[in-house]
Write a structure and sequence with these properties.
The chain is about 70% helix and about 0% strand. It has about 200 residues and is an all-alpha fold. It folds into two domains: about 1-160, Apoptosis Regulator Bcl-x (Orthogonal Bundle), CATH 1.10.437; about 165-200. The longest helix is centred in the C-terminal third of the chain and has 33 residues, at about 170-200. Belongs to the Bcl-2 family.
């Protein structure tokens, strides 16, 4: 769970950097949340980050303005510290209700990164900590047993391992299949949840 939290913090940091939102203030906030890196994080994060970035590039509209897509609050406003973790949890429950795959896990990280962008753009930097804690709860409730059975976080490296920024043909083919499946699932989840979540939250 601690490794998952650390991966989440690192992913949020990378996502905010890609969006041009990683200011000194945001960096300081993330440093107060992040736990010491382990060798697992050092090994796994590059693969997670590259795959997440590819998902975001293929369907940028899906992983941006996430809170607006999932709720009917004006402009997707995150009204309190629990809103972003709740939205993430609702996506996770729907995403993992049939089975867990690496593609779905990477998609969830991408959704989390999108929610982090929403938090920063709305000036709610203190919400980032609760978002990371929300991801930790999802890992504990929905992913721990699957991760144990699938080689832990290092199991991701068996599916695709980036060498710098280069992929082999097999790596790209694997990525395409995973990303295509994940994008289809996450867009279906957003459509399903978006229409029903407003009445649940508000």
């Amino acid at each position: 769970i601690k490794t998952g939290k650390c991966l989440c913090c690192q992913y949020i940091r990378a996502r905010l950097r890609r969006a041009g939102l990683l200011t000194r203030k945001v960096t300081m906030r993330l440093r107060s949340i992040i736990e010491p890196n382990s060798s697992v994080v050092y090994d796994v994060f590059p693969a997670l980050n590259v795959m997440g970035e590819e998902i975001e590039k293929m369907h940028p509209r899906l992983y941006i303005n996430v809170s607006r897509q999932l709720s009917r609050a004006p402009f997707g406003e995150l009204t309190d510290v629990d809103t972003a973790p709740l939205l993430l949890n609702v996506v996770a429950k729907d995403l993992f209700k049939s089975k867990v795959t690496w593609g779905k896990i990477i998609s969830l990280f991408a959704v989390c990164g999108g929610l982090a962008i929403d938090c920063v753009r709305q000036g709610q930097l203190n919400y980032l900590q609760y978002l990371v804690e929300g991801m930790a709860e999802i890992i504990e409730d929905d992913l721990v047993l699957w991760l144990i059975d699938n080689g832990g976080w290092r199991g991701l490296l068996e599916h695709i391992r980036p060498r710098g920024t280069q992929f082999s043909f097999l790596g790209w083919l694997t990525l395409f299949v995973i990303v295509s499946s994940a994008i289809y699932l996450i867009s279906s989840v957003f459509k399903h949840i978006g229409f029903h979540l407003y009445s649940f939250l508000f």
